[in-house]
Design goal:
The chain is 43% helix and 13% strand. It has helices at 2-14, 18-22, 25-31, 35-44, 58-69, 91-99, 104-107, 132-149, 162-169, 200-203; strands at residues 80-86, 111-118, 153-154, 175-184. Bound molecules: flavin mononucleotide. Residues 46-47, 155-159, 195 line the site of flavin mononucleotide.
């Protein structure tokens, strides 16, 4: 709680946010008391590129998918499909998915989840913008954070051969594989490479461009 108070006080002094000024302090404290856990989870998640061969139980896979299912989507269209390629249950599918990326570390992950977008189901704005990718990004990050909360490693993979992956999954025309998420227990010697983030000063604007 001390941590959150310090955080809010910092915000108060550095950012003239109306929302914070307008909210009763105790109400604010109650509403954000999960913030330290959330912040810790967001800090602990990293792109894991070395997995142990320990299988991941079906319940764990379903738990992360259940968290992904709760993600918001434009007009609540939920235009997504999760294909689970488990090395132990379906080695051929796992190998075919891994081959579309071609990196040994990904092949070693016990589970590969392909998150595909269904363009024909997604919301398109009046100007035609297709929101499939936005929805897929949100649900996928729910999945990754849920995995981190269970001690499981993940990594976003988009640099795959799209044709090859679509063929491996037998995707209909309106279904696009958007991201592969390896899921597994991080190897004991899995290292987290330093990936510094931009500071708030660099990315937050309180005025127009
Ligand atoms: C949309 C997207 C695509 C990515 N594609 C790949 C990829 O193909 N291969 C890879 O090794 N990492 C990929 N990454 C992981 C990023 O390199 C990584 O998230 C970033 O460097 C920050 O590091 P961190 O996840 O450890 O915090 C991707 C991440 C995102 C969000």
């Amino acid at each position: 709680m001390k941590y959150v108070r310090r955080y809010v006080n910092n915000l108060r002094t550095s950012s003239p946010s109306k929302t914070l000024y307008d909210t009763d302090y105790n109400t604010l404290m109650e509403s954000i008391n999960a913030y330290p856990q959330f912040y810790r989870l967001a800090t602990e998640r990293y792109s894991c590129r070395k997995y142990s061969s320990r299988p991941v139980d079906r319940e764990m896979v379903l738990a992360v998918l259940d968290a992904a299912r709760l993600a918001p989507s434009a007009c609540n269209k939920q235009p997504w499909v999760f294909t689970v390629a488990d090395k132990n249950l379906n080695p051929e599918l796992h190998a075919a998915v891994a081959a579309s990326y071609g990196r040994e570390w990904a092949e070693e992950a016990p589970v590969l989840i392909v998150v595909s977008g269904i363009h024909s189901q997604a919301w398109h704005r009046a100007d035609g913008k297709d929101h499939t990718d936005v929805d897929i990004a949100i649900t996928t990050e729910h999945l990754c954070l849920a995995a981190a909360s269970l001690g499981l490693g993940t990594c976003w993979i988009c640099n795959f051969d799209r044709e090859r992956l679509s063929q491996a999954l037998n995707c209909p025309d309106d279904v696009e594989p958007v991201v592969i998420i390896p899921l597994g227990y991080p190897a004991d010697d899995s290292v987290r490479s330093p990936r510094p983030r931009k500071s708030l000063d660099e990315i937050v604007r309180w005025e127009k461009f």
